[in-house]
């Protein structure tokens, strides 16, 4: 069995958002969008690449939502 490539893809918890219903719904849409973008990027990885390159790409995907988090702040 091979050693899996792992990375942490943190997403702000939309259930923790307090306030008006519209603000809560926006938080869920943003979290969904962030996850959707990351999954699409993950599926685009060419897995015939070497392990080090794949690890870097998977970690980079986790950082791809940082700009969305910054905009929400």
Report on this structure.
With 73 residues, the protein is mainly α. It has one domain (18-72). The chain is built from 3 helices and no strands. It has helices spanning 21-43, 51-63, 66-72. The longest helix is centred in the middle third of the chain and has 23 residues, at 21-43. The radius of gyration is 15 Å and the shape is elongated. It starts with 20 loop residues before the first helix and ends with a helix.
Fraction in beta strands: under 5%
The N- and C-terminal alpha carbons lie at a distance of 42 Å
Helix content: 55-70%
Main β sheet profile: none
- Total E-strand runs: 0
Oligomer: single chain
Gyration radius over CA? 15 Å
Domains counted in the coordinates: how many?
A: 1
Q: What class do helices, strands and sheet pairing give? A: mainly alpha
Question: What is the strand and helix layout of this fold?
Answer:
Elements: H1 21-43, H2 51-63, H3 66-72
Q: What would the keywords be for this entry?
A:
73 residues; mainly alpha; elongated
TL;DR of this structure?
The chain is an all-alpha fold and 73 residues long. Helix content is 59%, strand content 0%.
């Amino acid at each position: 069995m091979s050693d899996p490539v792992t990375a942490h893809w943190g997403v702000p918890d939309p259930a923790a958002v307090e306030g008006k219903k519209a603000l809560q719904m926006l938080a869920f849409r943003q979290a969904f969008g962030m996850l959707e973008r990351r999954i699409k990027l993950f599926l685009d990885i060419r897995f015939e690449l070497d392990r080090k390159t794949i690890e870097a790409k998977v970690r980079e995907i986790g950082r791809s939502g940082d700009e969305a988090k910054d905009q929400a702040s």
